[in-house]
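User: Fold this; tokens only.

Assistant: Input:
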Amino acid sequence: MRPPILYLTVAFGAGLFTVLAGVDLRVTVWCVLAGVAVLQRPAPVGAACGAMLVAGSVWGAAALRTRADTCAGQWAAGGLTPTRAAIVRLTDPASDSGGVVEGAAQPGQCGGALTIRWPDHHAAHGGTTWVVAGRFLGDLSRGVLVARRVRELDAIPRGRGALRDRIGARSRRLFGKQAPLVDALVIARRTDLDADLRERYARSGLAHLLSISGLHVAFFAAWLNVLLKRLRLGTRAQFVAGTAVMVAYVWLLGFPTPATRSAAMLALLDIAKLRQRIVAPRGTIGLAALLVMLVDPWSVQSVGAWLSVAAVTMAACGPGAVKSDLAAEPPVTITFWHGWSQPHEVKAIEDNLARFHHAYPNITVKEVKSISDDDMTKAIGSGKAEPDVVTSFSTNMVGQFCDSGDWIDLEPLMRQAKISPKRMFPRAVMDYTQYGGKRCALPLLADSFGLYYNKDMFAAAGIANPPRTLSELRADAIKLTRRNGDGSIAVAGFPPLTDLYEMSAYRLIANWQPQYFDSQGHSNLARDPAIQGFLNWQKDLINAEGGYPALSAFQSSLGEEFSPQNAFEAGRIAMMFDGEWRNANLTQDKVPFTYGTAPFPVPDNLPDTYGAGYLAGTVIGISKNSQQQPAAWQLVKFMTTQTDALTSFAQAITNVPSTFQSLDAVPQLSSNPNFKTFLDIFASPDSGTTPTSRDGSSARGGFDDLVHRWEAGDVRNPAAELAALDQRIDAAA
């Protein structure tokens, strides 16, 4: 999991600035590297920031060495010498009256950029190559070579200077006396600007317009975007063409810091748009600033450049920066029903609603908590206008919500908002939010399930790592099981009965990669070998751990799930199948042992799928009776696709954020290795869920009931019973 780019950029910039300021950080760098090695597992964000601090220091040291090797660096260090000489390619043309020009020293004894005071009566085209000799005045950062003698070596304009020369010539033909002003505004060439004009701009407070800034680049990008749209290019072709032209323009300017920053931000926004991702402004600004420092390390010392970055940051992230397209519409009130009830959960919801109201000040949200599916379904069925926005903790009910029309189809609204579910959500999440071609729900946080294990028990049993395959799970479970003097179970390695806490058949079986329906849409439980494989594994493990009567008696003696008497917390079981939220319970109850988490083991014939697991979560939708559907959609879109909203909510209630991008923006959770397991399970392409159906609850319940009876030995012919369940599911479809 990547730490926030803003933190990394600040750390890199701090190291770079300190070294360029002349501070010797060699001892500090070694100390930081030692800290990185120690903290990389317990505190990966801090370790990453330390590594970036070192990287910035190394980059700064390289920049110092590079500048020392330039002509300006060597001449400034050499003290006053009557004459200095270099072979230079001019960046801009030099007029017959002379003046200050920029050039690039050609590789030889020295190189780098040079500022030259060009002599009179030696007009020169940009891109031509000259031998220049004179006295170097000033220091390393502001030195000027005062040329006394010049001789042309190559009259053919080449490179960037040649292109700038041609643009300048074209400008003079088109604009005449106004050409110097046009050159300043378009290609950042200000040497020919009239002194009176500069003075007038300065007195009017508009002198900054004569310097190329991010605003100029934004104007250029806007006109370029209009042109590319007129050419009717595809989205990807527009991105490639636009980015190439933008990079070429900034290269033509010489990569000035404000222009480079603006171009980098525009490119990042285009990439996000291409990938249908929601962009966090601070992340975009941070990454753009990092790119600027990589291109030009000395930009970190430019006060003007960082004032520009600060202004953009305030504009993007400051108060009033995020305003919606509904901000100017008449005030509306919508009602939001949800099932959360715990104080910290309700507070997290209210905090997000406050963020929403800040972005959409015309929309007031009336919140109603602790609503069950039955309450919500009855209200919608009665035809009441309330609620507008609804949630459910039962993904198996989505088929019913979609099929009945109680929740409206969100697909047209998503297309209008240019939201691609495939690029925003994992496959399993897309599966459980649609039914019958209708996507009537979107995910509002998710749950992923994996394995919790007691590290102290593992160490005592001589087991080094959590099991990865089912055969390893079986061996470890047997090794970890301890019995009382009468033969009853004292500690179970892994109790396989599916009525223990969160462990149910439809969740466990996800790692067998079952195919619930065939290509014709018919229930496939009896014909899918994964189903029979799961049943055989479970029966084998039950027998290996002492049989159903012993395990049933053991499980009946275990404490309540959400209490310190929970069997895992009380040390009664060594391994447990559970969701990501259990981490919060274990931390709150301060368990007296060390625990770890891992993906649940996979069948031995599917080793490449290790890392997958069962996914579920909360879903959110819009009632068919809502009289404020546009405003309701804005709330649904904000809660489910806005990265800051998702990450703050996920961290507050310790759930998994439900978009690809939000997975990369939860440092509080991702820095905890035991929680990161569940973020990785959520991101795994092999993770699965229970498919939606018109009567999802009864279908899922039917399978659970069959497995409970199978555990107890009451199912003699599982194939026949699965076939009968297939028929019931097909009849209800």
